[in-house]
């Protein structure tokens, strides 16, 4: 390469790094902002607004929440239960059915495959689903209303089937020759062999359950059953009208300072979403695998 | 356990998998394995498909599906005769089209640049860009408010410091297509760039080597090798977008806008409209009708998209 080309190349690289540095800042900025707000003194927030550096540092918001952590802990408990139970059950029924349609010698393979994947093409929509859940399954105000709807997806089946289809048929044949039943083959041989796929898919499912809010929004009214994401929705909803209409509130003669404080709400967001923000990125590779199969091969 | 298995003669099938009749017992066992999923899908997918008849009834919770009276197409008329039908359909389709264009451009751009730098740095940037993928829309609603809050919001304070007037963001429908685009891109750029990056990495490096020998510049290589090689991937993603043209991202439109009624004109999509008709205004049957309209058009689009894929490349088609 000639001298000038090399120089141009180096300049180009510098520009690319500059671009990514700016992009990274833009992506990280909202996180920094929310952390800063949660650590800012309430009066300073009102005076100076939200900014990237706490105008007056204060941890009172965290102190406040952690002194009466009841609602937060209960929400964590609910979310952990939903995630754990949902992921285990989901993996179980997904892998069971995925195995059967990965077996070329299974006679009902084709009709079963059509039966599963037709649901990707047409759905009854939200209303029949809502009526089914509330009027027929009576799952209003039950954590199962959050666990059941996301338990089996054709995408999950597709991912598992893709993996299980690669297990050599001779292994299954030889187990059968040894007298093992299909169930025994599945639980003793196929499942252990599928650990990598189960881990990838399980992580993906767990992530979906952890961040679930839609079904919670539809079916959970009881305070005791609120999962983490719904807790955040509720805290916003009680205030979102008021906070954007401060003049209206003043005209009603309400005192703004009576409203729960800003920093506390942001601190709550961090306590709810923060821990997983540190854990999930370590598993990024698996997410990418799960998501690309889900979105591309779907 | 061993005993009971040994009793099943067909489980010890002859080593010829072709002799199909002999596999009967084995088929039954496999069917039993599939049973939980079969029941699940029947209840959650097929029963709800049957539930679309609600759209043709005046559904009342006290009378149930059977007891409620038939009203024919009244629910559909009620929806299509209002301006709402046009607004939510337009918004849903336009956001999908626009997001596809914006995402393709930005993600391609980012992916191409990622490929120009060392793997170490590229991986580092990818991790940062991927962070928002893990954040739920509920949390993003809070992040958006930190920027857009009328009194304390970062953007309004910034405007003030330049001597400009504050904006009531949650009351100004005109700005929301741009705001939602930013939110959407912020959350999804890491993933969509990664999809294209994976596509670029898979390109045979010998193409680039040959081009370099011939003295091609970086730009020429991108234009003459990278983009053409990614064309199939871009096409597939386009077809998938077409297939889901009638479905929007509920969380983005519902939470980021704070579900502010003044913004419905530019923010509302079919999904949020159905949700509100069901759970806020209690217009159950009309919501079902809109949902059925969405499903039917969606179905037609998927079939059409799949037909298009088959024309281009059979391997990528759904059936």
Mean pLDDT of chain A: 84
Q: Pairing-aware structural class of the strands and helices of chain B?
A: mainly alpha
Compute the number of structural domains of chain B: 2
Judging from the principal axes of the Cα atoms, what is the shape of chain B?
A: globular
CATH class of the largest domain in chain A: Mainly Alpha
The total strand number of chain B stands at 0
Q: What quaternary form is this?
A: heterodimer
Could you please describe the fold and organization of this structure?
The complex is a heterodimer of chains A (298) and B (319). Chain A is mainly alpha-helical and 298 residues long. Chain A contains 16 helices and no strands. Chain A has helices at 3-38, 42-48, 60-67, 70-102, 109-117, 126-136, 144-147, 154-164, 169-177, 182-193, 195-210, 214-219, 228-243, 246-252, 262-279, 284-297. In chain A, helix 3 crosses helix 15 (262-279) and helix 8 (154-164) crosses helix 16 (284-297). Chain A is globular and about 75 Å long. The two termini of chain A are 45 Å apart. Chain B is mainly α and 319 residues long. Helix content of chain B is 69%, strand content 0%. Chain B has 15 helices and no strands. In chain B, helix 4 crosses helix 15, helix 5 (83-116) packs antiparallel against helix 11 and helix 7 packs parallel to helix 12. Chain B is globular. The model of chain B is unreliable at 1-20 (pLDDT under 50). The chains are: A mainly alpha (298), B mainly alpha (319). At the A-B interface, helix 1, helix 2, helix 4, helix 5 and helix 6 of A face helix 1, helix 2, helix 5, helix 6 and helix 7 of B. Chain A: The chain crosses the membrane at residues 12-35, 80-100, 112-131, 143-164, 185-210, 264-283. Chain A: Keywords: Cell membrane, Membrane, Transmembrane, Transmembrane helix, Transport. Chain A: One of its GO terms (cellular component) is plasma membrane. Chain A: Its main location: membrane.
